[in-house]
Sequence to fold (319 residues):
Amino acid sequence: MKGERNAAPQRGRPAERSKGRAAAIYPRLVASHRWWARARDSQASGLAATLHPWETGMDNSPAWDVPPARVPRETTTPLVRRDLSHADAAMRPRAEEYERYIHLVDLFRALGWDAARMLQESPFRVADVGTNAILPRAERDLLVLTGRFWVAAERAEIEARIPRQAAAIERLWSGADGIYFSADLISDALIRVPTSAGMLPLFAGEHGHAAALATTLAHWRARVRWPAPSTAPDSLAFEPGRYWRGPVWPCMNWMLAEGFVAAGDRATGKLLAEVMARLVDAGGFHEYFDPRDGSGLGGENFSWTAAVCLLLAAEAIGE
Fold:
């Protein structure tokens, strides 16, 4: 009987701790989403602006080759490349790209990190398709949390933003190319560089073009052994070993796998998940992988690669 009395509290503690953590994080998530709406979509267009390649998470994507050309290379902050201490320079962004990255940081610091002035004065201002897919996915997840921490006004805010975002992301679709593109908000033109980010609207729950995106991915797979490369392998900008210009990224494969499965294409989703399992099994928990031969690139023993593998394993178990 003593053992039984002790067992019940033990079963409840993890759930209680989880609920406590969610309760602490929830208002911060609400504040973050409000910031994106206020600071990066002040006209309520449904598309959020990104002002630095780092914000997109895809620093040197070839989608950013043209917009950053407007950014000067002069910096006031010394350029220190700590990333080169753990990865070969051939796998990382080039020096001139970093000079432009740091110039933008210097500019924003000079503007006092004032969101309105940054939005107005940044020479790099794009609607990144990746950000504009992940953000509405996060809105939907946040909407689920409002069911636990009910605040009617917050729920109404989120429900108002989601359809605007869904309609806006369709403006990034190119039927002729079978993929979504980012948009340059200064020139008001699509950036017609096909990248794996152009498939992320599936992760956001936008499934209307799932078949076309699967066809595009199939074309890419015909040119590389391991999908999904971060840049179309038939693009002149494709560099299979350099950061976001070609390698397979675990976080992207997880989001794309989930997106394809949710769209009803379990075969494509399962393929992308299995690719990650096989790459890690053969080469370890690398930061990213060469799509031609599967060799591990970038940092080693990368925790987010391990996290993605745990997610994929848990989802496979739950099938």
